[in-house]
Amino acid sequence: MKISGTGSVLPKKVVTNEMLSRFLDTSDEWITTRTGVRTRHVISDEKLDEMAVEAAQKALDDAGMNPEDLDFIICSNVVNEYVTPQLSCIIQGGIGAACPCIDINCACAGFIYALEIAESFYKAGKVKNVLVVCAEEPTRMTDWTDRRTCVLFGDGAAAVVLTPGDNIRSIKLSASSSTDKLWQYRILQPTPYITKEEQDVPLQMKGQDVFKFAVKAAGRDISRTLKDAGISPDDVDHYLLHQANIRIVNAIRDYMEQPESKFHSNIEDHGNSSSSSCPILLDECNRKGLFKKGDMVAMSAFGAGFVSGAVLFEW
Ligand code: UT7
Questions:
Q1: Which CATH class is domain 170-314?
Q2: Which homologous superfamily is 2-166 in?
Q3: 42 touches ligand 1 (CB under 6 Å)
Q4: Mean pLDDT per segment of 10 residues, for the chain of length 315 residues?
Q5: Do 16 and 31 form a contact (C-beta atoms < 8 A)?
Q6: How far is the CA of 147 from the centre of ligand 1 (A)?
Q7: Is 87 close to ligand 1, i.e. is its CB under 6 Å away?
Q8: Alpha-carbon distance 315 to 309, whole Å?
Q9: N or C: lower Cβ tally within 10 Å for the chain?
């Protein structure tokens, strides 16, 4: 397939490190040097499903495509206000499409997993035009008294329209179950029969373990896509990595031995917006006109599970 349109939407509320330091034992200096984040967009009166619809509409407009021409919608999401129906069904109605749709929860790697599903359906001859939407509000998952997690995240939605083409050169996915490093529990409705002990626990993270996994997984996943496509790191024009921590991005850059100019980043303004992170960055680069036709783009992401993946595509 090929990416024919992109769109993204951010909540209007911007929270600075200084604002966080008013109620947390933290500082702009700590957050900036340890993560690279200075500000993040945080949901206040917006609804995530409405942001997802708007991002999808922008991607359709960018692609010049009518919603009725879509054959499939894939939405990557970890939490939102609905338990059911799935967000992709709400998006389908919001944009006026009529095709089947599915939600996936692959944490921060959801965009890459969604591209692989779209590409596989396309290669199987089942679809021609696919809308992928990532919509995330990780700021609703964290404990806002926990300085180790809440300073890292921001919210947002982003979408791409995929159409027939051979621009996606390689996608590699991986998963390695490690459920005690990054997780959240929630209590479901009680029943008269529940006897087990249950807890409502906000997002928990062993930051250094996630950091080590991220650097290793991204280096490996990107290298596998390059090998698959028969090209070298030097042949890649743009690296778009999951915006979780600028130190993680820099460590992957060192591993790939590539110049800083190839690594685009928006973590300073956005923080980590989970699976929306990569497509928001893609949309911003696209709208800034940073990509030329024929440019080679490598993208990678990792997240809770653990899951990870990389994609290599020609613009
Ligand atoms: O999409 C995937 C999501 N997650 C990630 O990608 C996270 C990956 N991990 C990381 O980005 C980093 O591990 C963190 C940013 C989470 C933490 O950075 P670190 O350099 O690994 O710090 P640390 O956990 O070793 O903590 C160092 C110190 C600790 O204090 P003590 O024990 O040395 O006294 C923390 O309590 O920094 C303290 N600390 C803070 N201090 C000020 C932790 N968070 C903060 C904070 N402000 N916000």
A1: alpha beta
A2: Thiolase/Chalcone synthase (3.40.47.10)
A3: no
A4: 98 98 98 98 98 98 98 98 97 98 98 98 98 98 98 98 98 97 96 96 97 97 98 98 98 97 98 98 98 98 98 98
A5: no
A6: 8
A7: no
A8: 19
A9: C
